[in-house]
Amino acid sequence: MRKNLLLSLALVPAIAGAQTFSDDFESYTAGMAIAASSNGLWTTWSNAPGGSEDAFASDLYAHSGTISAEFVTTSGSGGPADFVHDFGNLTSGHYELSMWIMVLDGSGGYVNLMHTGGATGVWALGAYFQGDGNGYITAGGTNYNFTHTVSAWNELKFDINMDTDLCEAFMNGTSLGSWQWSYAENAVTGGSNQLAWLDIFAYGPTGWLGHYFIDDVTFQEAGGSGIGELYRTGELPAWPNPAKDMLNVELGADLSAQARVELVDLTGKVLTVPTRRTGQVLQMDMSSLVDGVYFVRVSDGAQQRVGRVVKH
Predict the structure, then answer these.
(1) Residue 303: Cβ-neighbour burial (10 angstroms; 0-12, 13-18, 19+)
(2) Which of 117, 199, 250, 309 sits at 20 to 30 Å (Cα–Cα) from 240?
(3) Which DSSP letter does residue 267 get?
(4) Which of 221, 237, 271 lies at the terminal end of a domain, its last residue?
């Protein structure tokens, strides 16, 4: 469902396995209850899609396309939205979970992962976003601090390896630290080497009422290195597509220092355009180019992938 976000690539197999998923929320319309319309991809804490715990689609902001999921509360205790993806109690495997979050200036945000779900569930971690641009992830009773840009999109990513019982967190491509995955959120005991739920609860840390947006949620298998694994979903992460001015290309952490990213026209000519790198994202300014079809070519040693992008 990742419309207008990913550039198609040849010769890369798609992920197998029912547990992997992605949602850019473009299949929903503004005002729609998402879980109730997601064909089981999303549910709520009480398994009541369509009720007050459901998240609603919004066209106010979007990381890609025009739609994201909005979370807002007027109560310091949070809610009512309590939006869940159920992973089915995974106990093995190596996965990457990423999402983009925009927390409005002066508001808070919150996301958690759970070892076991439901009323008696055990939290694996909590990610807390403050409205002043600070935040922290709590796992094993330790806070891993980060900064984020308020009223802008930020990428939150977790590398969860249940085969080695290790988790590493990233904010906008920067590692925040790693810990034993089977820790509980607030203690090194009481958890389990299991992933049950992604829970997005309308909440903000103390002093910040929650108001934030989530977009482009992806859960995929990890492992290996190099661009063959970086783009293992069969698609090149880049946005927006079509592009008018700035094209963003996600590089990932697996590329070597010798890797090249080039913009190529239909004749095969490598084009020189202004570029800048922010974390693991390369921004390419296409505003000076005429409308048409171009290609992004990523090369790392003997490996190469090419993705198609439209400029208009």
Answers:
(1) middle
(2) 199
(3) T
(4) 221
